Amino acid sequence: MSTAPEAPPGPAGVDLSAPSQKFMSCWSCRLTSGGGLVLSGAYVFNAARRVMRQGGTTSIGTVAQITFAVGLAAWGLVLIANPVGKAQRKT
Questions:
Q1: CA distance 5 to 80
Q2: Distance of alpha carbon 81 from alpha carbon 86, whole angstroms
Q3: Least C-beta-crowded within 10 Å: which of 11, 33, 65, 91?
Q4: Residue 83 — φ and ψ, nearest 5°?
Q5: How far apart are CA 44 and CA 60, in angstroms?
Q6: Could you tell me the pLDDT band of residue 12, with boundaries at 50, 70 and 90?
Q7: Count of CB atoms situated within 10 Å of the CB of 33
Q8: Where do the H-state alpha helices sit in the chain?
């Protein structure tokens, strides 16, 4: 069996094989993408609320739209907060 070759280290000894680690250490990257997700959720939520304000019936599609909007906003907040690796195990 063969193993995958190791990725060569990048500039200044940074390991390029873990792009998620570089993303999680970049505060401006997390803030930009998380803020974009939160704003996307607000836009989708606003579109669903507009239909309800105009006197339209609350259909299953509107409920699904609101649920999707809340999910987008929650995903953005989790991305900004970055809770992975911050929890301490109790012994």
A1: 33
A2: 10
A3: 91
A4: -75, -5
A5: 15
A6: low
A7: 16
A8: 19-25, 27-53, 60-81
65 class by beta-carbon count within 10 Å (0-12 exposed, 13-18 middle, 19+ buried):
middle
* For range 17-40, the mean pLDDT: 80
Distance CA 77, CA 6 (A): 34
CA distances from 73 to 16, 53, 68, 76 (A): 30, 21, 9, 5
The pLDDT tens digits for 34-64 are: 999 999 999 999 999 998 899 878 899 999 9
Do 33 and 74 form a contact (C-beta atoms < 8 A)? Answer: no
Gap between the Cα atoms of 70 and 29, Å rounded: 22
pTM here is: 0.67
